[in-house]
Amino acid sequence: MRPSGRDVSEMRPISIETNVTKHAEGSCLIKIGDTHVLCTASLEARVPPFLRNSGLGWVTAEYGMLPRSTGSRMRREATAGKQGGRTVEIQRLIGRSLRAGVDRVAMGERQITVDCDVIQADGGTRCAAITGGWVALRLAVNKLMKAGDIISDPLTDHVAAVSCGVYAGQPVLDLDYPEDSDAGVDGNFVLTGAGKMIEVQMSAEGSTYSRDQMNTLLDLAEKGISELVVAQKQATES
């Protein structure tokens, strides 16, 4: 039995509210159970120096956790003078994942920065950030297209992410914090709406895993991703 009482293949409740901030070109508040992440997308008429005069666009991301997003207050990284290794790793993952679903030629020479701020954490924050980050990106691109700034849609497919793991010897979908902190195997799966894999992060957290178990976790991830894509479509096409 999972601590939440969910079935092994059951996602937590998914909620995506769009246009939650006034100034960002695209924004959403994504809730996956008790994990809540605010995602905003900002358009900029510039690209990094290594892309100047290339005709290619760029999508990048920043990620952070608010001090009371967890059970005890965390110190703001800004007060420490630098980002932690976990933060840097996660925001690079978000950026890589979102770029995998973008035609950077069609995007033109401009940058979209996706900011993901964790308001409340209960496991799977990076996955919620990727899933919500795509929604914010979609809304920002919609504004570009509506204004006639780009001719063809640069977003080639949906991008979403979900965690899976082996908890109490059982492969399970969408780990919350109690499961994540005690899982024998932990994995994050980033896929496109068509089921193509972008990134898979799998690690043993005290026990090894078999090829069959990995295949089972991938099957669970595909099920979870399909549900997340439905939520993305409902949020952006309504």
CATH homologous superfamily (4th level) name: GHMP Kinase, N-terminal domain
Distance between the termini: 37 Å
Q: How many distinct domains?
A: 1
Q: Mean of the pLDDT scores?
A: 96
How helix-rich are the residues, as a percent range?
25-40%
Which structural class best describes the helix and strand composition? alpha+beta
- The CATH topology corresponds to Ribosomal Protein S5, domain 2
Order of helices and strands: EEEEHHHEHEEHEEH
Widest β-sheet, arrangement of strands: 1-2-3-5-4
Approximate shape: globular
- The CATH architecture name reads 2-Layer Sandwich
Please, how many helices?
Answer: 6
CATH class division: Alpha Beta
Please mark out the parts with pLDDT under 50 across 5 or more consecutive residues, or reply none.
none
Q: Largest beta sheet, briefly?
A: 5 strands, mixed
Q: Taking Cα atoms only, what radius of gyration do you get, to the nearest Å?
A: 18 Å
- Report the count of strand segments: 9
Instruction: Estimate what percentage of residues fall within beta strands.
Output: 25-35%
Description:
The protein has a single domain, classed as 2-Layer Sandwich (Ribosomal Protein S5, domain 2), CATH 3.30.230.70. The protein is 32% helix and 29% strand. It has six helices and nine strands; from the N terminus they run ββββαααβαββαββα. The radius of gyration is 18 Å and the shape is globular. The mean pLDDT is 96.
